[in-house]
Each structure stands twice: as structure tokens, then as C-alpha cells.
Design a protein that fits this description.
- The chain is 31% helix and 25% strand.
- The strands form six sheets. A four-stranded mixed sheet has the order 22-23-1-24, with helices on both faces. Strands 2-15-17-16 form a four-stranded mixed sheet, with helices on one face. The protein has a four-stranded mixed sheet with strand order 4-5-3-14, covered by helices on one side.
């Protein structure tokens, strides 16, 4: 079993390059199989979720060519199966996008229910509602979603909540439905817009992504394309907060600053310095930061995927803060791990009440999910002494070359075998 070992107390300094957005990549990879011509996708993050999904579409007959570590060519012309039932695909949330893509193209799909991080339920009722309003019959049995239709027909669909997954799934199915579809109250996250732009690059007719209503006029077929994925706002935000937690000074490159506005605003509110450029943000933290109240909200609000990192930063800041989680009901269960490092946090329902402490001390902790795992790494970088983070397979689902990028900023972090005492001694000697 692999783990991260971290020696904290060193401010992060320098510059770091942000990769492609994982959440956009999952939708775009699946959407690519809807064309019967080759599609080239660039700026693809090399993370576990992406690689599992590429294996899954290859398993149903798509041709997948890795041109380099960040570029893939996909051809869905030879897909011969709409039954996706692999153990690996159950482990990632993005598996449900296969329903919308296969239903849109072939009018049928049989896909294993998604998994991912254990941060709360991921209801698919809005997905099913959308598919049914397009004319599909949808059932769930034996842990799989079974969707089929004689013909998909455009409709006016109102989402009860702005679900990211449902918005992308319905958008994919509707882009090859007959007639016009309007999705009211859709999610507006940057990766929604990116998936829509990608579908349009293949010949779809989608307007209004990122606004209060998405309008889609169905087309008969989609063609080949070349497309580059947007930068990952959550990876960028994680480094921004890690810099602030360690008292560092870092240029975070290959970003879209507008996508980071909610994170930037909170950092400035608590006393960090953030300077924006065209495709870069410069974060400086040269003193102990202050308190804030944070409430997660759909985009453009503060992202739920940044909540654990923000809670960690506020636990090191001066004063009393409150963080309220409104998206996933069990996303605060990592707090017990932060307490092992000295954090003073009380959880009541979906709110964390934080009294800032002057510093953390290293401890052995376990990552319960992807973003909480990144937050524990961040805590370790700020802590005195050595921190050991287990269950790093969650973290590797969404962060490419995490330990290498941290070392590039001067942080002390290695991925080692948890049973390898020699590697632990070697690391400690190197950083002492």
C-alpha cells in the first residue's frame, strides 16, 4: 500500500503548472464516442479517473490511441456494445455519462451505477427525469442503469436542482435527439461550458451553456474534432490554499482566473495577497491569516470540492470561522483526521465550527476521499514534523504528479510503500 510521507514547515515557493480539468475530461472523453470519426483531445490530465474511463470506452469497442501522456485520439465508429459493467467503472462518478452518450447515439445504454468518493449520496433522479422527458424508458436493476428509446425527442426540461452530472448527461442525449430541447435551471460550472463547447466542435448545436437555460437543437450525427480541455480550477485552488497555509509565494500558471473568483475572494478576505494575470495567479501569504464564514454553493459560488482545503486553511487562521456544506451531506467526515494534527473543529450537522490554532503537528492520517485527501496533504505541508497520509489512491484519482509538483515548490513530500521502513529512513535523512 502506497502512502505519502511529508515533512512540513517549509513555505511553498516558485511556480506550478496546472493540468487539464478532470471533471471536464470525464464528460469530454465520453462525448467523443458519439462521433463516428476520430476526435483528438489535448490537455488531458493523467489521473486515475481518466485512465479508467479510457479503458472502459475501449472495452466497448472505441479505438483509443494515446498520442502522448496528455493527448488522446478516440474513434467511436466501431463501438459494438452498449453494456458497460466493469468493476473499475463503478469506482468513478463519470461512469454515468456513458448513459447519456450511448442513449443519444444508439438509443440504448446499460451502465453500472457510479461510485467515486464516499462524500454522500449521488442521486440520479434528475438524470432519469431528463432521459424520460426525452422519450426514454429508464430502469435500475442489478446495480445498473438501463435506458432505451425508439426515438429521442426534444423537450422542455426543468431540473429541480442544478446538478452538474444531470446537465451534462441530458445535454449529450439531447444533442442527437429530434427537435429542440431546453434545459432550465442547469448547472453552470466551467466544465459544463467546456463539454458543450466540445460537443459544438463536433457539430452539435448547443447554446446558453453557463447561463440559466441551455438550448439544444438536435443533429443527425457528430463529426471529428480537435479540442483542448480547460485548466482544472480545483487543482489550481488547492495549490492556492496550500501556498496560503504554508506562508508561501507561488505563481500558479495555466489557469483561467475568472473560474477561481470565489476562491480568490475568500483568500483576499482573510488577508492573503492574490494578483491575477491573463493565465496565471500569484498568491503570497506573509502573515497569519484571519477568519471567515464559508458556504458551499453551485458555481459561481464557493465550490464544494474546495471545502476541505478551505476548512484546513481556516483551522490554521486566527479567530473563529464557520464552514457550511450544502452540497454533500457527509463531506465533513475528514475533520477527525485534522483533529489528530491539532485542529480545533466541532461539527454540527452540515457545519464546521473552527477555532484557529497557531500550528499543526505531524500525524498518521488517512484520506477518506479525493479532496479531503488533498487537504490532509496541505495540512501536512503546514505542520511541524512528519505526516503520513494513507489511502492515497483517492488523491491520485484527481491530482496529477502531486508529490512531484509539491517538491518543485520546495515542499518535502514522497510517495513510498507504507511497509518500506528503509524508504522512510532515507526520506527523513534527506530532509533533516
Amino acid at each position: 500500500m502506497k502512502q505519502y510521507i511529508i515533512k512540513g514547515g517549509t513555505p511553498l515557493r516558485g511556480e506550478v503548472m496546472i493540468g487539464g480539468a478532470k471533471n471536464a475530461a470525464l464528460g469530454i472523453i465520453v462525448a467523443a464516442i458519439m462521433a463516428n470519426e476520430p476526435v483528438t483531445i489535448e490537455n488531458l490530465p493523467d489521473v486515475d479517473d481518466v485512465n479508467v474511463l479510457l479503458d472502459a470506452i475501449e472495452g466497448i469497442g472505441a479505438i483509443v490511441e494515446r498520442l502522448d501522456i496528455h493527448t488522446v485520439r478516440i474513434n467511436g465508429a466501431l463501438i459494438n456494445d452498449v453494456n458497460v459493467d466493469e468493476d473499475s467503472i463503478r469506482k468513478i462518478r463519470g461512469s454515468y455519462y456513458l448513459v447519456g452518450a450511448l442513449l443519444g447515439k444508439y438509443k440504448k445504454a446499460l451502465v453500472a451505477l457510479p461510485g467515486g468518493c464516499q462524500i454522500g449520496s449521488r442521486p440520479i433522479d434528475q438524470h432519469i427525469k431528463g432521459f424520460e422527458q426525452l422519450g426514454a424508458e429508464v430502469t435500475i436493476h442489478h446495480g445498473r442503469i438501463d435506458a432505451k428509446a425508439e426515438q429521442l425527442t426534444g423537450n422542455h426540461i426543468y431540473l429541480d436542482c442544478p446538478s452538474v452530472g444531470a446537465t451534462i448527461n441530458i445535454m449529450m442525449a439531447a444533442c442527437m435527439a429530434e427537435g429542440k430541447t431546453i434545459i432550465e435551471n442547469p448547472a453552470k460550472e466551467p466544465h459544463i461550458v467546456d463539454v458543450a463547447n466540445f460537443l459544438n466542435s463536433m457539430g452539435a448545436n448547443i447554446k446558453g451553456a453557463g447561463t440559466d437555460a441551455i438550448r439544444i437543437r438536435g443533429v443527425d450525427s457528430l463529426h471529428g474534432s480537435e479540442y483542448s480541455i480547460i485548466p482544472d480550477q480545483i487543482e489550481a485552488g488547492t495549490y492556492m490554499l496550500a501556498v496560503a497555509a504554508t506562508g508561501g509565494d507561488v505563481y500558479i500558471k495555466n489557469v483561467i482566473p475568472k473560474h477561481l473568483e470565489a476562491i480568490t475572494a475568500k483568500l483576499i478576505e482573510i488577508g492573503a495577497k492574490v494578483e491575477e494575470f491573463d493565465d496565471c495567479v500569484h498568491v503570497v501569504s506573509d502573515r497569519r491569516l484571519s477568519y471567515a464564514n464559508v458556504k458551499t454553493m453551485p458555481y459561481p459560488g464557493f465550490p464544494t470540492d474546495m471545502q476541505p482545503q478551505m476548512t484546513t486553511l481556516l483551522a490554521l487562521s486566527e479567530g473563529t470561522s464557520i464552514v457550511t456544506e450544502t452540497i454533500f451531506e457527509t463531506r465533513l467526515k475528514y475533520v477527525g483526521e485534522l483533529r489528530r494534527m491539532g485542529a480545533n473543529i466541532t461539527v454540527e450537522g452540515n457545519a464546521a465550527f473552527i477555532t484557529g490554532v497557531e500550528g499543526f503537528t505531524g500525524a498518521a492520517v488517512s484520506a477518506p476521499d479525493l479532496r479531503a485527501g488533498a487537504a490532509l496533504v496541505m495540512a501536512g505541508l503546514a505542520a511541524e514534523g512528519f505526516t503520513y497520509v494513507d489511502q492515497i489512491q483517492y488523491i491520485e484519482r484527481g491530482y496529477e504528479n502531486f508529490e512531484q509538483k509539491i517538491r518543485g515548490l520546495g515542499g518535502h513530500m514522497e510517495k513510498i510503500d507504507a511497509e518500506d521502513e528503509r524508504a522512510v529512513r532515507k526520506f527523513k535523512m534527506k530532509v533533516s
